[in-house]
Structure formats: structure tokens, C-alpha cells
Amino acid sequence: MRYQNIVLISPPFYSHFQPMLALAAACAHDGARVTVACSVAFAAQVQAQEIHFYELNITRNANTGIAQRTDQSRSEAERLNAFFEATRHGPIATLRLQSEHRQHDMLTDPERMLADVGQMIQALQPDICIVDQLSYAVTLALYCLQQPFLTYCPGHPTYVPSGTQLFGVPYAWPREFTIAPEALSDLRALAQQVDTKFTSLFNSIIAAHAPHLPPVVSAFRLCSPLAVLYTYPAFPHLLEQIESNGIERIFMGACFQRETLPTTWRDRLLAVEASGPRILIALGTFLSARTDVLERCICAIGDAYPQALCIVAAGGSAEALAHLSSDRVIIEAFIPQKGLLPSMDVVIHHGGNNSFTESLYYGKPAVILPFSSDQFSIAHDAQRCGLAACLDPNSFTAADLAAAIATLLRDAARADLHTWQAHVQERGPSYAVRQIQAGAALPLT
Predict the structure, then answer these.
(1) Does residue 90 fall inside a structural domain?
(2) Is 177 found in the same domain as 303?
(3) What is the mean pLDDT of the chain?
(4) C-alpha angle 9/106/369, rounded to 5°?
(5) What local confidence, expressed as pLDDT, does residue 285 receive?
(6) Structural domain total, the chain
């Protein structure tokens, strides 16, 4: 049998929605009827690909393009600003704040979500749902309703914890970060506290709405019993960290739709007289708010490589950085990153999973500046596999960045990068769909 009617459920975050849309398009190309259930803010993008849209609002906070410009409630905006401030104080302060915030927004109005997901299933009658792992209320609803689903993991594979891993604590750190044992122990204790509280809340909902089902051991570990899809390379050292538990693990390598560079951008690149390297700086839709880090990068590149072309995705910081613009420094709020990557020599990014896997797909060496979340784990993997350099975004000097770029430019043809580039290019959303449909012959429950 095959899954003929597939529903993909995305939270209102641009960085999560885009790869899920790529997966939805691959499912549709394979012949399934596909619906994307998400915020109305993404409806036009879904419908532009002739995919069905269903409005489903999952969480209070959102980021539909640039975090600071997305409509937020006052409390959510304050939390976002607190996050930006925490990143200035290093990884432990940031990860602790994220854990504290997690206690308040991981399971927004679960009864409403249970009802809304139930109505969606009744209306769409899917064979299978594919849900973003971080949409915990949706996963809980699907579990209570006993609706067959697959788990889509949008970030580092340890977002679905295994063994002694705790959600919110990096499984490994880049060499540039020395974390005091006491600080790490305190972070783990806080993460365990959040896990216990979150799991208790999960089980109270299960007891009230699906008392015939067993309670969960850990809310963060609740995932599909059929398969988990990772937008990540299958690094051997990482596979050793993941328990299979009889669940199929599908490593897609990367999950995005290739984009043609718009004519206006092609013309801009052709007009630039730059004999130095082409460097793209992109800290993601949230962390572009760190204007100070973007400015240090731009100035360091200008000093070390005055003939370089520097393209900056500045988000809400674009206006504040406008004084640094020149013929060879292009600063925009939003750039066509996937279209530009083939033309770049080096990428500077924050270790977000999309930036990491897209850069790897195009064989571009990177300097990673991790701030939060799973970025430290991603930076560790990239560094360990010889794919990137890593710097502390709060303390790197101009000389540090110049040296990292120089090393990457010298070693750009190294075998490790091309080996993993080939691995990622061989996989992708179409590969995932083939694996999903091959597994459709398995029992659905």
C-alpha cells in the first residue's frame, strides 16, 4: 500500500515551514494528495505550489520571516528581547533562559489543539500525518487520537533525545567553548526539571482525554512509532548516539527547494568589481538582531579582504547597518540565500540547521557562530567532520575571523567537504518520500 492522503503540520516559523513545504512538494510530486496545515501567514506559499492548505494555529509565538517584524503579543516580544539579551552573555545564560521560557509555551492550550487536530482529521481523513517535532501539542493530540503520524525533526537529531541526552542541553560542544562542569550540571538539572514538568502535563492530558493509552516516559521523546525524518546528514559518530527503538530513522541530508537567483540579483553580482572572495553572512531570522556581531563580521572582512564581495542578510538590523554598505558590501533585510549560495566562496552563519545543510549541499565551507538551541551541537558536528570553522560570536576578534576564512579558502577543495556534499545531494526530500512510501507497507498502528 501507499500513503495517498498526506497532511504535513508546520508551526508558524519560517525556518521550519520552508523545509516542510519542500517535503510536501516532494510528496505531491510522488502522486499523493497533500495538505499543509499551518498558519494563514503561509497560505499563499502553499497554494502557489498547488498544494492544499488547511489553517491550523499551533502556538502563540511566531516568526514568519524576520522575527522582530512578525506581529507578536507584548509578552512574546518581551521574551524575544530577553532572548537576544541573553545571547550576549554566552551559551549557558542563553540555554537557561530558553529552558525557562520552554516551561511557559511548549504546550499552549492543549485541549483546544486536541479539538482542532481532531476536526482537521475528520475533515481531511489523512492516511498519515507528518508533524514537526517541536509542535508538541500536535504530537500529543495525534497520540491521544491514535492518528498515524511520522515525526519530522527540524533541527539537530538530538531534538529527539536518546540515552542520557536532555532536550535543551547540547550533546557535544565545539572546541571554542569551555563550559564549567558546575554550569553544565546546573543546566542539565534545569532541563530535567522542565522535562519532568512537561511530561506530567502531557500525562494529565492523556489521562483526561485518552485514559486507555499508557502515559509517556518523557514528553520530549514522544515521537512516531513508525519513523523519524531528520533534515541532517547521517554522520557515523552521531548514529552511535541515537537509539533506534524499532523506529525507522530517515536522514534526508538536506530538505529544501532549489531556487534560481532572481535577475535583479544576478545583475547586482555582475556589476560588482570584486577580485577577492565572495562571502555570505546570514545569522538566521532571529539572530540577525545581533547587529553588533554582523558589524564585526563586515568590518573584519573589509580589513582582511578589501576586494571581497560581502553579502549580508541583516533582517531587522539592515537599517542600522546601512552605513557600512558599499559597492562590495550588500546589506539587505532579506536575501535569496539558496539562490546565492552557489556563487559564494565562504558562508558565515549561526549554525542553524537550514543554513548548515544548504551550505553543505552546495559544498561551501563555513564559519559557524553558534548562539543558542541546537547550534552548538551542529557546530560540533561540522567542526568534527572538517566542514566548518567555529568561533564564539561574543568574543571573536577580527584576526580570528580573518584566520578562519583564510584557512577555509585554502582548504576549500578538501575531501571531507566534497564527500559529505555528495552524501547530502544524493538524499533530500524525494529520497525521504521514497523511504516513507516503502515503509507504508508496515502496519499503521
Answers:
(1) no
(2) no
(3) 93
(4) 85
(5) 84
(6) 2
User: Residue 155 and residue 284: Cα distance in Å, rounded?
Assistant: 13
Q: Tell me the pLDDT tens digit for each residue of 390-437.
A: 999 999 999 999 999 999 999 766 889 999 999 999 999 999 999 999
DSSP 19-63: HHHHHHHHHHHTT-EEEEEE-GGGHHHHHHTT-EEEE----S--B
**Which residues form the domain of 14?**
5-71+102-255+428-439
Within this chain, do residues 175 and 202 fall inside the same structural domain, yes or no?
yes
Closest CA to 148 of 216, 217, 53, 224: 224
Question: What CATH number is attached to the domain comprising 299?
Answer: 3.40.50.2000
C-alpha dist (Å) from residue 98 to 14, 186, 358, 372: 19, 14, 26, 8
Instruction: Please answer whether residues 330 and 344 qualify as being in contact, where contact means their C-beta atoms are separated by less than 8 angstroms.
Output: no
* Same domain, residue pair 221 and 299: no
- Categorise residue 37: left if φ over 0, alpha if ψ from -120 to 50, beta otherwise: beta
Pair (334, 398) in one structural domain:
yes
Q: What residue type is assigned to position 272 of the chain?
A: V
Q: What is the CA radius of gyration of the chain?
A: 21
Q: 258 is written with which cell numbers?
A: 532549489
Q: What is the pTM of this model?
A: 0.94
**Dihedral angle at the C-alpha atoms of 39, 41, 45, 50, nearest 10 degrees?**
50
